[in-house]
Structures are given as C-alpha cells and as structure tokens.
Design brief:
Layout lengths: L10 H14 L12 E9 L9 E5 L8 E4 L5 E7 L2 E8 L5 E9 L4 E3 L2 E3 L7 E5 L12 E6 H6 L7 H5 L21 E2 L2 E2 L3 E4 L2 E2 L18 E9 L11 E6 L7 E9 L10 H5 L8 E16 L3 E20 L5 E18 L4 E16 L11 E18 L2 E14 L1 E3 L5 E4 L5 E2 L7 E18 L6 E19 L8 E6 L2 E8 L5 E5 L5 E5 L11 E15 L3 E16 L2 E3 L13 E3 L2 E2 L6 E10 L6 E11 L16 E6 L23 E8 L2 E4 L12 E14 L2 E13 L2 E5 L9 E6 L16 E6 L12 E5 L5 E15 L2 E14 L35 E15 L5 E2 L7 E9 L26 E2 L5 E2 L17 E9 L14
Parallel strand pairs: 1-7, 1-8, 6-9, 13-16, 25-29, 51-56
Antiparallel strand pairs: 1-4, 2-3, 2-5, 5-6, 10-15, 11-12, 13-14, 15-16, 17-18, 18-19, 19-20, 20-21, 21-22, 22-23, 22-24, 23-27, 25-26, 27-28, 28-33, 29-30, 30-40, 31-32, 33-34, 34-37, 34-38, 35-36, 38-39, 39-43, 40-41, 41-42, 43-44, 44-49, 45-48, 46-47, 49-50, 50-51, 51-52, 53-56, 54-55
C-alpha cells in the first residue's frame, strides 16, 4: 500500500495535501461530530473461547471500494471503521469453521455497532446467514443524540419543512413551535438554555457569527441522508455546549436512484372564522393562503463504477399569503410573497484504495416581498432575497487502523434590500403607523465563515489494559458579520418619529457608501453599489482556532472512558477603517473620519471533557453513561460591533417641526452630538439596539458552562430502546453591560407617574391608585461624551439548570417506527443579564439593554427568575405495502405557559428594566403606556433615563409545560415554582 505521500501519478496532488496537513497542524480547532460509523465486536467459538485470525469483511452499496476487511486480534476482537452510512453485510471466515454472514446491519452517523458472533466448527463450504437488525444501543459513545435517518426524514410529515422540524424530534430541544414559515430564523434552545448551538451540513459550520440571527440555517431537507441532533455529553470535538446538529447529504452509487415530489394547496382547503358579526363590521376575508407549493427532484448514480459518484437535487418552495387588514392602492388585499430555491451537488471520487475526495456545494435563495401589515402600508413593503452558499472539499485517507480527514469549507450569507417608496421613513410610537421607504433600504448584510479542519484517528487494541480509539483534531473558524450601509438617495438617511401624529424625534443613520439608485417600472428602488471602494464598509473580525485530543478507552469490553481536552484561541478585532461624510444634513453627526484598530482580550481556554459508559449486562443491551464537561462560550461578532464606529449607527435627536409640515427642514434639529437635542447613539441592527461607542474590557472574563449528566439506556426488543437522563449545568462569568461614564449612582432625579390601569388612560375608573417611579441623570451627564458601554462579568449572576428526560425510539422495521419523549427543566437565574433581550449573545443576539449596571446590587432576597419548562412529543408512523408511506400522526407540540411578575424589593439584584421619558425619552419602537403630561414608560430599555421602578428588578417566574398528548395532566413539577 502506498504511503500518504506516495510516488506515481498522484505525487503532486498528495504532496500538496501533505503540505496542507503540516500547515493545518499549527492553526486549527475541533470539527464537531463524526459523520461515519463503525462496526466492532468479538468472535468466539461455541465454547466461548476467543478466535484470533478471523477474517471479517464488510460490504455495502454505500462503499465505493468493493469491501472493507479486518482480522481479529489475539483477543478475538475486530473493528471496521470508518464506514459510510448505510446497510451492511458482514462475513466472518476462519478455516475449519462455518462461514457466518450477518446481514441488514444499519449504520447511522457516529454510531458504533457492537456485533459479537460465535462460529461453529464445520467445513469451509458451509455457511450460516443471520438476518437481524443492527444494535440500537451504542455502548461506547457517551453523548446523547437523536439519529434521524433517511426513512424518518421521509416519513415524518414535518421532516421536509425546516431545521425546526428536525429539532422537534430531539428530546430536550425546544425550538419555536411554528414550523410552517419558509424563512423564519430557527431558535436553538436545549434544556432551558439558549445559544451555544453548533450547526453543520456535511461537516461545514453554518452557525452565524452573530449569535442571535441564525437565518443561514436553511437547508434542502429532501436531500438529507441523515441528521444527527446531539444535546448532552458533547466530547472534545464539539466547540460548544448547546445543540450540535450535523446534516449529511445523500451520495450517489453504482446504481441510479432518483425521485420527485410535488405538493400544493390554496385557500380552498383552509377554514375561515368570518361570521355574521364580523361581516356586519365589514370584515369579509381573513388571511387566506393563495398558494403554498413544494416541488423537488433528485438523482444520484455513477459516472465511473466504484470510482466516481454524483448526487444532485433541486427544490423550490412558494408561499403567497394575503395579509389581514392590509390593502394595495387599488383596494385589493395585500399579499406577502415568499420563496425558497435550493440547488445541491455532491461528488465522491475514490482515487484509490486509501484515498477519497468529496466535494459538496449547496446554493439557497430565499426571501420575498413582505412587510405590509395593518400598520405598514403597501408602499412601505420590502423586497429582500437572501443568498446562501455552502461548500466543502474533503480528502480522506485510510490505512489499517489510521484514518485522516482534511476539509476546507465555506459558508457565505448575503442579503440586500429594496424599497417601493420615494418618501422618507416615518414611525408613530403610539399608533405604530409606518410610512415611506422601509428602514432596511440601503443595508446589505453579509456574513461568512471559512471553516478549515483536520482530524486523525488511530485505533490501537490491547494497550494499557484495554483498547484505545485516539483522535486528535484541529480547526479554524474565520470570518466576519457586518452590514454595508449605502446612501439611500432622495428618501433620506433618517426616519421621522411621531407620537400620535405629533412630531417628536429623528433617527439619523450613518449611511454613506456611494451608490446609484435604480427605479423600476413597478416603483421598486434598488441600489447599484459602486465597486472598487471599501469606504463605509465595516469590518468586524472573529477568529477561533483550537485543537483537541481525546481517547475512547475500552476496558474489559464493558467500561469505556471517553477522555478529552481541547484548547481554543478566541480572537476578536476591528481593523483600521475609514468612512466618508454622510450626505447633508448629517455630515455634522457623521463626518469623514478614520477609526483605529481595536483589539479585544484574547481568550485561551482549556476545557476538559470526562465521560464514561458502562455495559451493565455485558451483552450490549444496557448501558449507563455520564460524566462532566466544561465548555467555553465562543466570542461572537455581537460582542465586538458596539466598539466599531463604522457599523450601522442610529443617532436619535429631539425634533421640533417649526413650520408644521411634518417633514424635516434644515434648522429644526441641532445635530451636535453633545447639544441639547441629542438623545443617544446606538447600533441599528434590524430594529434591535445596542449602545455604540463601546470599549474593550482589559479584564474581560470568558463565560463558561459546566455540565454534569448521567443516563441509562436499555434495548427492550429488536430495534426498540428507552433512555432516561438527568442533567445539571451551570453558567459562570455571565456578561452584562456597564456605562463607564454614566454610573448607576448618577441617576438621582426621581420621576413619578401614576399607573393608568388596563385602559392606558389616567383618571379613569380602572386606575389602581399606584405609581411608577424611575430616576433620571442630571443634564450635565447628557450627550455622547458620557456614553461608553463595556462588557463586564458578575460572579453573583451564575445560573443553574436541572433537567431530566425520558425517551423511547423504535427504528423503522416491519413497516413501522416510533419516537416519544418528555423532558423538563428547573432553572435558577439569580440576576437577569442586562445584555439579555430579544436577541442577544446570551439569549442570543445583539440587543444589549441600554441600562446602567449597579455593581452593588447583589442577590440578597433569593432568586430573581425561577422557572420550570417541560416538553414532550410522540409520533407513530406506518409504512404501507403498496401505497408507499402512510402517516398516522405527525408529532405535534403544544405549550401552556404562565408568566408572572412580582414587584421587586429594594436592593434586589438585577439590571434596570424601564426607561423614562422625563428628559430623554426612549426611541424604542414600542407603544409606551400613556402617563400624565404625555410621558411614557416603555417595556424596553431607553437610551438615557434607565432605571427600574424603585430601582429594583422584578422577580420573574415562568412556568411552561409543553406537550403533545391529547389529554393533559397537571405538570408534576408545578410545585417547584
């Protein structure tokens, strides 16, 4: 067999790969989940004595080589790895014994199937064929994962919809309940904890560098061979604690296989709740579906038998839905138009017995014309189509018990936006009415992740009292996540804000990149950006390098220790960059300037992962597994962008409409950022908000997660297993935002307003007679000069999560399969982070609440947030003999949640959560309660006066029970709240 750097026709190619391996060995990090499976076991005779020298041969249509062969060692043990996903026949041959053939062994991703056999004395010509399902309990793997095979993905009715439908099948994972939206961003939540997810397709990381926006995780699910959802016990390969998802695309074969699918519906199959009472109020139509269509086709096969295989899939999904209460200028009902288009290609090339190349590329375009509501007119709709490109090139080398994989992958995400109006954008804080060109026009979002990784696996038997499966890996994740901000032309780089029709404020944006506006016949305005210039093009870089080493050490064939440790180097930086002045009148707010390089503290965590699995009965039917692991939270772009002055900024000013025309005219605003009209400067990220002007914390601590778990798994019958798991996890070094130049003690001016009651109007019968008090800071601390946010850690904010789950699964056999689970979590969050909003890097996302942290407020009165969340799902699926696949029941979820807010107590810990409008009102896009004198208190944190009523944080209690059973019992964990 030739070496990795063999001579011959492939000399040049292999030398390049050898050089790449040397480079990769110096700067890479963990890969995530293994995509191949393994078959291992022991061969004995009828008396139980071990048989060395048995030739074990595996064959399968999934193999591009004819077969894979191994020989049992001195203890009668063998191991076949790596093996592609598929169904295998394994043959055991030893002179003097009957040949044994084991058929129908199904391997799933990263599954180690233990197959022990006994040979009978007899002639070589005699053979015994055993047909039986593969084991369903993995006695060596300590992670808790859900395998969704091709059959499962095809049979489950929701399996074609989104990654949300995939997570819905995994115990402990709790995404959003709605899986119907074509382009809705998925939510990754597991056992009560948000964030920390790691999503891959074909081993390529597609997790957005912005933790809160996972819009890039939209794949063609019809092209999947298998999907793995891992929730607990992540090994040193996994870079994060949260949900680990790896989708593996189908491959070609020596035989040609393909298929097609078409599904379509409209409002004829949709019910309506329009009754006579609504018709009397002139409501004649709701929001019917005009079109919902899904069309796909795929084909796989060979180009050269046993050498070169291909697979291609195409898919298109459309949804046109009418919008309730929204109309076009011709009085017809407005329509939201969405679509997805996928193109997937995969090529596998078996260069020789030891070398293999795999190429993969998936292109996705999704989006549409949306945004019209009863508050947003047809002219303010938005056209945006996201383009997603995911690709990889992987080289694999196998020699004996050594396996090497080197892979280069890329994920590139981009979305421009258009508008249909030639008028400035407006927004009314009290009525929520919107007009003019949508606020996203001029924004071109772009994110990428260049994912390079390598791993080397070496299996060594009979070493140090057991067998060892060593693995070392390296990985590099590099990229950025930013928004190019082009000048909007005549519609203006600002938005006018009203309060019940009264001019109030202006949001001024720093759009400045030179672009030409092209107007189409239908009124659509698009930007043609000029090339060759990086002016006003922000750049915020993240780099994660790391390495890991782990050993799966099996002792006496019953105890397996999975021991690993990983090292990461997390780097965040903002390169030097420049911008030109914004168009008048905003050249005062955003003058031409350059910004120096900003370096954040580099994190170098070393995180051990120690887990074990014990085969209780010794027959591979019952296993107890568990252990402890520490996980370092990776740095996201969200943590860096507040310090980048070249990103999309929004500066809010007070506006006096001097001539009463409800349009901005010169002289109506003082644009001095330290003048009397200045309110705040914040990041403008799709309606989310974070204070700008941040500085790095030289003593910044890296948030960490500890996870302790234990589970028992038992195979009850062929293809059927049950599992029970308990998990305890803890988060330390939780981050909060501190304004260095406007400390908590500066809020000394009390402002009190009466509670107007449910009707929102003071002086009416429902007024409860209570008041809301908040504090303002003096005018001497106003202006941009006193705005300098910084991330800090609070050791008193450690969070704990206690969870358990029970799950049962039946693989597809005899034309039926089943999955069922229930999980519940008790969480304790002593101090709610003021970085936690709709989408921050903990919740996750960018919304850094604009409050001031009180460093003296501790946890003196017990928990501030205590909740219990439970969930469950079940499904039974039958396959028909002739009619294909019949669906008895889809796994549906329901949730019952109750939230309560207990008035806070003085000195309770926690951030401020209410904003005042005493002097610098909030610019948040939410309707504040009406208060005397026209003042308002918003549920969001405003940019200035931001302290909670009576300087306390309320205690939040959340009790959720998510279920699917048709009859609902009281949550048995209710007493925990």
């Amino acid at each position: 067999m030739r070496s990795i750097c063999a001579t011959g026709r492939r000399r040049t190619f292999l030398h390049v790969l050898c050089a790449a391996c040397v480079v990769l060995a110096t700067e890479l990090t963990p890969a995530g989940q293994t995509q191949d499976g393994s078959i291992m076991g022991q061969v004995t005779d009828e008396s139980g004595a071990v048989l060395p020298g048995v030739t074990v041969t595996a064959s399968s249509p999934a193999l591009q080589v004819r077969q894979v062969t191994s020989v049992t060692d001195g203890r009668g043990e063998y191991r076949l790895t790596p093996l592609p996903l598929g169904t295998y026949t394994v043959e055991y041959v030893l002179p003097g014994f009957q040949t044994l053939r084991r058929e129908d062994l199904r391997l799933t991703a990263a599954f180690v199937a233990r197959v022990d056999v006994s040979l009978t004395l007899g002639a070589l010509t005699e053979s015994v064929v055993v047909s039986g399902a593969a084991p369903v309990v993995d006695v060596t793997t300590t992670a808790t994962r859900t395998q969704l095979t091709r059959e499962t993905l095809e049979i489950i009715p929701t399996g074609r919809n989104s990654i949300v439908a995939v997570m819905a099948q995994a115990p402990g994972a709790r995404p959003q309940l709605n899986v119907n939206a074509l382009t809705g961003n998925p939510v990754f939540r597991v056992f009560g904890q948000n964030g920390g997810s790691w999503t891959m397709i074909e081993g390529v990381g597609t997790t957005s560098p912005k933790s809160g926006t996972q819009g890039g995780n939209h794949f063609d699910y019809a092209s999947f061979e298998e999907t793995t959802v891992q929730t607990v016990g992540n090994t040193a390969e996994s870079p994060t604690r949260g949900i680990q998802i790896n989708a593996i695309v189908k491959s070609g074969g020596n035989d040609f296989h393909g298929g097609a699918y078409w599904g379509q519906t409209n409002d004829r199959l949709q019910s309506s709740n329009i009754d006579d009472a609504l018709r009397a109020r002139r409501v004649s139509v709701g929001n019917p579906i005009d079109l919902r269509r899904d069309v796909s086709a795929d084909l796989g096969g060979r180009i050269v038998r046993d050498k070169l295989w291909f697979y291609y899939a195409a898919r298109r999904r459309d949804e046109n839905e009418r919008v309730l209460g929204a109309f076009k200028p011709d009085a017809s009902q407005a329509i939201d138009i969405q679509r997805q288009i996928f193109s997937t290609t995969k090529v596998s090339y078996q260069i020789g017995p030891s070398h293999k190349l795999i190429g993969f590329y998936q292109w996705d375009q999704q989006g549409g014309i949306t945004g019209t509501t009863q508050f947003v007119p047809w002219e303010s709709r938005q056209k945006s189509f996201t383009a997603i490109n995911t690709s990889k090139l992987e080289w694999q080398w196998v020699r004996g018990n050594t396996f090497l994989s080197v892979q280069q992958g890329a994920w590139i995400w981009n979305v421009p936006r258009d508008c249909y109006s030639d008028q400035p954008a407006t927004f009314d804080q009290l009525t929520n009415a919107v007009s003019g060109c949508n606020t996203n026009f001029g924004i071109n979002s772009f994110e990428d992740r260049f994912h390079t990784k390598a791993s080397l696996t070496w299996y060594k038997s009979d070493l140090l009292a057991g067998n060892h499966d060593f693995k070392v890996g390296f990985e590099s994740n590099r990229g950025h996540g930013d928004r190019r901000i082009s000048d909007r032309g005549e519609v203006g780089n600002y938005r006018l804000i009203f309060r019940n029709g009264v001019p109030f404020q202006m949001d001024a944006w720093n759009n400045c990149f030179a672009a030409d506006v092209k107007v189409f016949d239908e009124g659509r305005r698009t930007l043609i950006e000029k090339t060759g210039s990086s002016d006003c093009e922000p750049l915020t870089l993240y780099r994660n390098y790391g390495a890991y080493v782990q050993d799966s050490w099996t002792i006496a064939r019953r105890l397996t220790l999975n021991l690993g440790v990983r090292y990461d180097r997390n780097i965040g930086s903002i390169p030097e960059q420049c911008r030109s002045a914004s168009a008048a009148p905003l050249e005062i707010t955003y003058p031409a300037e350059c910004f120096g390089r900003v370096e954040f503290r580099t994190w170098n965590p070393v995180t051990p992962r120690l887990h074990a699995a014990y085969d209780v009965t010794g027959d591979g039917m019952t296993v107890i597994k568990g252990g402890w692991g520490r996980f370092a939270q990776l740095r996201y772009v969200d943590q860096l962008t507040p310090a980048n002055e070249n990103v999309h900024l929004r500066t809010t000013y007070l506006w006096r409409d001097l001539n009463g025309n409800k349009l901005f005219n010169p002289g109506e605003i003082n644009f001095d950022r330290n003048g009397p009209d200045f309110v705040s400067t914040s990041l403008f990220i799709a309606g989310e908000e974070a204070l700008a002007g941040a500085v790095p914390n030289p003593n910044e601590k890296q948030p960490m997660d500890d996870e302790l778990s234990i589970s028992i798994e038992r195979q009850l019958m062929t293809d059927f297993a049950v599992r029970a798991t308990g998990i305890y996890s803890r988060t330390i070094n939780a981050q909060r935002v501190q304004n260095n130049l406007r400390p908590f003690e500066a809020y000394t001016i009390p402002v009190t307003n009466l509670d107007p009651g449910p009707d929102g109007r003071p002086g009416t019968a429902d007024d409860p007679g209570t008041s809301v008090t908040y504090w303002e800071y003096p005018a001497s601390l106003a202006g941009r000069t006193f705005q300098q946010p910084m991330l800090v850690s609070d050791s008193r904010a450690d969070q704990t999560y206690k969870s358990f789950e029970v799950a049962a699964s039946k693989r597809l056999s005899n034309r039926w399969q089943m999955m069922a689970s229930y999980s519940a979590t008790k969480l304790d969050i002593p101090i709610t982070q003021n970085t936690q909003g709709c989408c921050d890097f903990q919740n996750p996302g960018i919304s850094l609440f604009l409050s001031t942290r009180d460093p003296q407020r501790g946890n003196q009165h017990g928990r501030q947030q205590l909740g219990v969340a439970g969930q469950g799902h079940w499904g039974l699926y039958l396959s028909g003999r002739r009619a294909g696949v019949g669906k008895l029941r889809a796994p549906q979820r329901h949730a019952v949640c109750a939230n309560s807010v207990v008035p806070g107590r003085p000195d309770d810990s926690g951030p401020a959560t209410a904003s005042g409008a005493h002097r610098h009102p909030s610019a948040a896009e939410h309707q504040p309660a009406a208060l005397p004198g026209g003042e308002g208190v918003s549920a969001d944190i405003g940019p200035a006066g931001v302290v909670a009523p009576e300087r306390v944080q309320p205690d939040e209690h959340q009790h959720c029970h998510e279920f699917t059973l048709e009859s609902v019992a009281e949550n048995p964990w209710k007493r925990w709240t």
